[in-house]
Amino acid sequence: MHYTCMKFKYTGKDYMNFVQQPLSGSSFSNFMKLLVQNRFRVSPPLIPRAMYVAIMTAMLSPFRWYDAMKFNKKLEEVKIPQIIFIVGHFRSGTTFLHYLMGQDRNLAYVSTLETMAPEVFLGSERLFGEMVKKRLPDKRPMDDLEMRAGLPYEEEYALANMCTQSFYHAWYFPRKWDYYFRKYVLFDGIGEKEKNKWRNAYIRLLKKIAYKHDGKSILLKSPVNTGRIKELLEIFPDAKFLHIYRNPYRVYLSTWKLYRKILPIFSFQHIDMEELDRNIITFYRETYKKYLKERHLIPDGNLVEISYETFYTDPMYNLEVIYDELGIDGFKDSEPYFRKFVEKYRNYTPDKYTIDEATREKVYEEWKFAFDAFGYDEMAVVK
User: What pLDDT does 139 receive?
Assistant: First the structure.
């Protein structure tokens, strides 16, 4: 793939899609801070999307105040339970694993609704549940997995709606991609005051989930956390980590599909294809270098690593091994639910890809360290 200043393409339908922009569930002040941070640089055809988000966030204000008045005092007493992080790069099988483990009735998770409306779901879940339900597609656009308001989702979307300290703002304002990546994934050039805002948002979110679910262990999945091991352990020193990794060629090609699908829905800015390709290469390289440098910080017995290819040969067997190695109780109780879910997706067929030689050479050169670390051959087959 070679791009020379080609603009990422949007269709007329994309420009008219307002209702799926995740920041609609943010606060008006958070959205205004992001616009100021980006100097109000919204591509003209996407101004209506920004106006819609501004209106929606303003309309949420009374519900946010109600939620805060009713629950803030109660949340002060809530203790955060055991946290289980699923980490791994985008398109490495993290979502399927998240959905599968989410069948465990002994675990809580952050649902799609709770990520989209993190500051109102305790007090107004019934109302906003219906709103989110109507706005969601039946399937995720990047892989056709089921999408519903009550299914597990990436808590990073919730953090992006609660504060400006989130990498996912790079999807909304891609011209500032490097800024959000280096500050909020690598934590380069971030002061302690700003880092505390990120910590406090994370803690507040998980206290709300713990309160709602009576202190159950919380299962979380956000690919950006792959590069935050040190920072996460500073908040949750006893957290357990499940890392799933995949053939890097496949990850590269599938990540391109991810960006092609979500940027037209999420972003307020156009971006060059060449710049986007560079961002994809950089994210994987720098995130995994940081992960490999920091994974030794995880206490013994609190980390399991498994390849996508191994896991999917026998999901039930491998899931039981994961539960055993991480010391998670309840596998047998939840086994019927796991089996039902696995059976549901037994005939699921992942997309097939081909890769040209120039792209293969580029990916291998940039990510060779990961090929070596995870045991993939330079000529690994892309299917």
Answer: 63
